[in-house]
Design goal:
Mean pLDDT: 86
Shape: elongated
Order of helices and strands: HHHEHEEEHEHEHEHEH
Strand order of the largest sheet: 1-8-7-2-5-6
Number of strands: 8
Radius of gyration: 36 Å
Distance between the termini: 109 Å
Number of helices: 9
Structural class: alpha/beta
Largest sheet: 6 strands, parallel
Helix content: 55-70%
Length: 296
């Protein structure tokens, strides 16, 4: 019959599409349409089904593309996160034994601690800047670092203090505050050295060796920051140990520790490139007088 001729068009189609076309043919047969009209209707039905098939193919291809892209992004994110955590762990574990003393509570250094620190025979204690309250007042974290550095000097553990901080803005002069605080604590001016271009931990460590010609330093900062500073010192050829100044709990410490993970990763790659500090300058040997470095 004429409907049987139409069945030839069913081959090569999916079961669902064949079902649609069969229903169309049966509808045409029931209507008693002429053969020409039947063929026209069959052709139209096939065209519609094929169009739908093409549309389905494109939609499926697009879905597969975005699914694969999503899987790739997730995999890349997981690999990236694992790399970040691996580098963070490597920086910490490679330097944790170099933190020789942890100050908690009162700024005091035990007799045993003094002995081990004196054995290191440091050229100076480098106090790293970390913010100020106003033009004359250090932040709590900076005050504790300064107190620790001054304690090292007064105990005869170091002969000089190297104050390194951000002096890039007139309204934010860490060095002025640090120098003033150290002077008022009774440290002779000739034994205070100021690095006005310590804009980052990397710059501070780099310039300690390059500008101030230090060879052996005690780095003074909080424990979470010590790992990175000591790692940079090791990679830049500066012999260093740490005295961690954690005399109190600090507001926003969780945020700082989270940010430090990224900072360790940044400096891990930066030190591989052996880049120079942002600013150079004439040498001011730590073995001499620091008065010329004060700038005020």
């Amino acid at each position: 019959s004429s409907s049987q001729k139409g069945f030839r068009h069913l081959f090569g189609m999916s079961a669902l599409h064949r079902q649609y076309l069969l229903e169309a043919l049966l509808y045409i047969e029931a209507r008693g349409m002429s053969i020409a009209k039947k063929r026209l209707q069959i052709f139209t039905a096939e065209a519609i089904i094929r169009g739908r098939r093409k549309g389905d193919i494109w939609m499926n291809a697009i879905k597969r593309f975005f699914l694969r892209l999503l899987i790739l992004l997730i995999a890349a994110g997981m690999v990236g996160a694992m790399l970040v955590l691996f580098i963070n762990s490597r920086v910490k574990h490679s330097t944790e034994d170099q933190i020789l003393y942890l100050i908690q509570g009162e700024t005091e250094i035990s007799a045993l601690g003094q002995e081990s620190l004196k054995d290191f025979d440091a050229d100076c204690a480098m106090v790293l800047g970390c913010g100020i309250e106003d033009a004359e007042t250090p932040s709590p974290m900076l005050k504790d670092r300064l107190d620790a550095g001054i304690a090292l000097y007064k105990a005869g553990i170091v002969p000089k203090l190297l104050l390194s901080g951000d002096n890039g803005q007139e309204s934010h002069n860490e060095i002025h505050v640090m120098l003033r605080y150290t002077r008022e604590a009774g440290v002779p001016e000739a034994d205070i050295f100021c690095d006005h271009a310590g804009f980052s931990t990397y710059d501070s460590v780099y310039r300690a060796a390059d500008i101030f010609k230090a060879e052996r330093v005690i780095i003074v900062t909080q424990q979470y920051h010590e790992y990175r500073a000591l790692y940079l010192a090791d990679k830049l050829g500066l012999a260093a140990v740490g005295v961690a100044s954690d005399q109190r709990s600090y507001f926003g410490q969780r945020y700082r520790e989270a940010r430090e993970i990224l900072a360790r990763n940044k400096d891990f790659f930066k030190v591989l490139l052996r880049g120079k500090a942002k600013y150079g300058g004439e040498a001011i040997p730590i073995s001499g007088s620091g008065i010329s470095s004060h700038g005020e």
